Amino acid sequence: MSIFPVGKLPASVLEKMLTRFRVHDERVVVGPRLGEDAAALNFGDRYLIVKSDPITFATDELGWYAVVVNANDIACRGATPQWFLPTLLLPEGKTDEAMVEAIFGQIADACAALNIAVIGGHTEITYGLDRPILSGHMLGEVAKEKLVTTSGARVGDAVILTKGIPIEGTSIVAREKEPELRRAGVPPALIERAKNYLHHPGISVVKDALLAVNTVNVHCLHDPTEGGLATGLREVAVAANVGLRIAAENITILEESKALLSVFGLDPMGTIASGALLLTVAPEEVDALLSAFQQARISANVIGEVVPIEQGMTLQRGGKDTPLPTFEADEIARLF
Q: Which of 52, 197, 311, 320 is 20 to 30 A from 123, comparing alpha carbons?
């Protein structure tokens, strides 16, 4: 029996587990399935949106990461993130009050920035860890008519990407691998800019997502995280049972990202990409949405279209169609 690599479970294994152990509840509107990153529960006149996600690659500003990546998936339902419960596991023999205060402060700062309340959680010192692990649990609400799912992508839709890639991966590399980057000759000023990717352009897509759903009729929202943009696109296609035709030249790969990832030979398409938002809308909605993004100073552009499933998932590069790349594990896992 083969051992799985670091990162997400293989999609086929996860799908098998979700199917085998599914429990029916009539109030579950969106439940566990590939590509759908947050649950939707029927709470009468609205839906309660629920999400959980751990932070395992990053150690610097752990609390900020945990709040933001969980809030992102709430916003990708068209919902407003409102309540957060952190589960913080701390390493035996390394934990002191300064470490705890720093992580709690990061959580508080991120929640304040997004108007989220911490309503509970759990903290303990755990044996067998060499670093803190923080798992977040986020809740939010959305009006029923505003709910958006990953599976909502429709044939003919335009595929739009905000900001560029891979924002989170670039920040992690800069923060966790600075000595190696300096030895490779990467300028210190560039490394500092990349570290700040956590905040500028930032790994949050809450503003992007809520602006979109309040401007046009969005069919699909998705936050490409572990496995990068390529995996995020695959998750959209699988969830919606469609194909995708993506133009490589329309994908913005940020300059600091190119510089840092090239040191380690990492492919930007497969590197953790929180901070970018994938969405699909009908072609006639594109101009209004891109105009709204421009007014809000959020960069965005059309990177492709949704096609029938029979056409598969392709990446157009240099006038040729090639299969959309597959990554069994996030590229950044190669560094840890």
A: 197
Cα pseudo-dihedral 104, 134, 71, 153, rounded to 10 = 170
Whether 257 has a pLDDT exceeding 80, the answer reads yes
- Residue spans of alpha helices (H) in the chain: 11-20, 62-75, 97-114, 167-176, 178-183, 188-195, 206-213, 228-240, 255-264, 286-295
Domain spanning 11-146, CATH class: alpha beta
Give the domain ranges of the chain: 11-146, 150-335
Tokens of 176: 């966790």
pTM of the model: 0.93
Q: Which residues on adjacent β-strands are paired with residue 2?
A: none
Q: At residue 57, does pLDDT exceed 80? A: no
Q: With the CA atoms of 294, 297, 303 and 307 taken in that order, what torsion angle do they form, in degrees rounded to the nearest 10?
A: -60
What is the Cα–Cα distance from 325 to 262, expressed in whole angstroms? 18
Contact 66, 107 (CB under 8 A): yes
Q: Are 306 and 157 in contact (CB under 8 A)?
A: yes
Q: Kindly tell me the sign of the dihedral angle through the C-alpha atoms of 134, 267, 167, 142.
A: negative
φ, ψ of residue 286 in degrees (nearest 5): -60, -50
- pLDDT tens-digit series, residues 100-132: 999 999 999 999 999 999 999 999 999 999 999
